[in-house]
Amino acid sequence: MTGTATKTLIETFAHPLTGAAADYDPLLKAIGDARLVLLGEASHGTHEFYRERAQITKRLIEEKGFTAVAVEADWPDAYRVNRYAVGASNDADADEALSGFKRFPTWMWRNADVLNFIGWLRERNDRAGRDAAKAGFYGLDLYSLFTSIEAVLAYLDKVDPEAGRRARYRYSCFEDFGEDSQAYGYAASLGLGESCEDEVVNQLMELRWRAAEYASRDGRVAADEFFYAEQNARLVKNAEEYYRSMFSGRVDSWNLRDQHMAGTLDALIAHLDAQGRKAKIVVWEHNSHLGDARATESGERGQLNVGQLVRERHGREAMIVGFTTHTGTVTAASNWDWPAERKRVRPALNNSYESLFHEMGLPRFLLVMGESEELAWTLRPERLERAIGVIYRPETERLSHYFHARLSDQFDAVIHFDETRAVEPLERTARWEAGEAPETYPSGL
Fold it and tell me: Which residues in the chain show pLDDT less than 50?
């Protein structure tokens, strides 16, 4: 198909996004009765991606009865937000509830758009009434090894002090590393220190052996508390393996992480289903985790991801939505653990999907692949696709931030914003302030 014919076809099926309430009607129609909606992002620092995911999620909760939001965040930090959202914590406001997010990159979740969404979620749950089902907020990631250890110990100290003493002894295996997960992984992988593998596996097994006893003590409250502790113990077991694998190969550690996130999602589905209401969950993660890996060059190298695993396990009950942008600004760091900066995003490279969408001349639009076999076929040939994580290096744009993908196999729908702006961190550094001038800070907290 010629370039002109391709553009004409995209133009035919593109749904312009005008800011109207009905903009996402075609997407909700395509979602239908799906119980899992995966909403991606092409960067971890773009305002429009966060804002529009929130808008879509609000409609899914209000109109389709979705019961939870699961995000690319650590389980303990997100669970604190969950407790606030359902009215079960002492946090005074959404800002305080998000204060557990202290690990780099804090702006991923401590930003103005997430703050506004969590404020809305709490207000919506309060409005639903005391006895109504409330929509929760959960984390899927596994970086919180030491925080999760603390959570397991706190739970056992309360329900079974003797088991808590055994757990404390097992987890003391990590004490020599001063809560430095990577230092532990390096030492254990090279045989320079003792592996804690047996201890974390045994701790998870013991906790599960006592599941019925712990979870039945006080009805639903006890079941929720046990589920929270069990997922922390499972996280410790998987994080221990993940940090050991970091020094053996990127594919191994990537696959372990995404398998953990997909497993946590499945555990959350089972837990919510057991409460008597069918779980329907919105997932917020990067495109690289949610777009089916089998449609990318990463998949050809042996990587899998959450999107692939969800499709394999849940089939048509899942809908995957990707987000793209051509240019603008982004909040990102120059290196790991460096301060957040507001950086200019270079215009998309030729032969990329982003460049193709830019040529449409539409400021923002939605494409739903299922609306046309011809559209899906047209967007199936391999093209470049951009991915900006928490680090953005424009000086090595092609090498650092592009990969080949088949878009219509990767996503069920795509939302494109031609020009985007950086998400606004709640803590703005001098380096971030030195970037592009921000728009008005949101008033609704």
Answer: 437-445
